[in-house]
Amino acid sequence: MDPTVADVLAIASVQAGDPRVRAGEQALGEPVRWVHVSEIANVAGTLQGGELLLSTGIVAADPGVDLVAYVTALRDAGARGLIVELGPHLPALPEPMVRTARRLGFPLVELRRTVRFVEITEAVHAGIVNAQHERLRFTQQVNEVFTTLTVEGARAEEVLAQAGALSGHPVVLEDLAHHAIAFSGTRVGEVLRDWESRSRLAVAGGDTAVAGPERWLCTPVGPRRGRWGRLVVPLAVADLDRVTGVLERAAATLAITRMLHGGKDIALDAHGGMLRDLLTGQITDEHAVGARLRAIGLRVGRAYAVLVLAVGTPGAPSADADHAALDAAAATARTQGRAALTGVTAPGRVAIVFSCPAETDEPAAVRSFLAALSTQPRLPAGLIVAAATPATRFSGLSAALEEATHIADAVAADQGRVGAREVYRTRDLGARGLLWSLRADPRLHQFAELQLHPLLSRPAEQDLLELLRSYLAANGNVAVLARALHLSRPAVYARLKRLSDVLGRDIADAETRVSLHLAVIAHDQA
Fold first, then answer.
1. Strand ranges (DSSP E) for 209-268?
2. Interatomic CA distance for residues 139 and 43, integer angstroms
């Protein structure tokens, strides 16, 4: 950033001359491109604009010079100001010169002690050259950072994180409906407060511009004939050139990566980032969470439905299937007019959050959403839908997402052993849900191993393990088991006796059967 007139007056070599500002105090913040020593009356034609002139007063002391025209010509040529050194030949600045400078708001400074102009020019020019070098270095850094992000196809959150770090300001990506779909920076609650209404006041047009009562810096995102969003620094920026360069480079990166990914909906990608932040507990403050969710377009309600879809074959998630389920969920929300937060939270897991008028309305709202979802043409087959206990506060969404994810994981792991349902809730899991939450506990593994060791230690007895599963599924009813195995009752009794002998336990005993059932579930989940 170039030094201002005030910056030049503050350097030691100028201060040694005891400077006194006679006019143009309001323009001392103007940037100085160069410092030029001039002792000719017709200097205006030699200027390019942005120069601060130094003079020993030869022109000012010349009775043949029209000082009004001289000062006016300097101002019109773009000079930033005039510093005149007083001396025996010029004990004071002529009044016509001072009056004209004041009328024009042109900085006019007198030095009441002798100085060496070469020291002033050396100091200022060194600072200007260093500043230019720093700008070049910074521009190179910005280009390198965003080129790398473009090549890697970075997510919107990554692009905004770098834009925020390089600019030193919060950066927001919003869509054309003024929803803040991605954000980088701190003080979330303050920055995103009443975002939509504040954003609508910052009308910036089709180019980078400062707009609105809060002096936001705005840059459009997307090709000129296909704008789909804009980047915003939602505050007044001091170093406008520096931050503009960062913002425009970030906007280009977002536009290119979106094109390279076939025009994917960056809003859904950003929603996924928000949901992952909630799930991992990175944002828990009610005010901050509320500000982000309202800014992203989620409607405020008395309750929030939280769903997680388990997509694809357990253990073999597919990114294509995830995106197909995500697109179907987003399309369903649009069709129903719901402002929903939808995103991929992990491979094979798609989360959906939307508001409800009240907690008691959540079951009906979920059923309506799932009925509409089932009609989507690209919806992957075999989806498992898990629903959490409705959240009644924004800060409760983190726990609700964790609950729904736990249900989806548990049902997916025991697929085929849990009764088929349109939507699964915590109460539907029973012991399986409890064991799933304890699956990492070594004591549970030890329990399962001890209970099933006689069967697991003998590869030849694997048929007995399947028999035990079938017996437990029949709830110990031999008649039901015989029909399931297509065997006679005597044959089943013979097999069950062999199973009891190998286990060394009476499998007809209720407590023994409970222990074995828990052990089998834990073993299968592991």
1. 209-211, 216-221, 229-233
2. 34
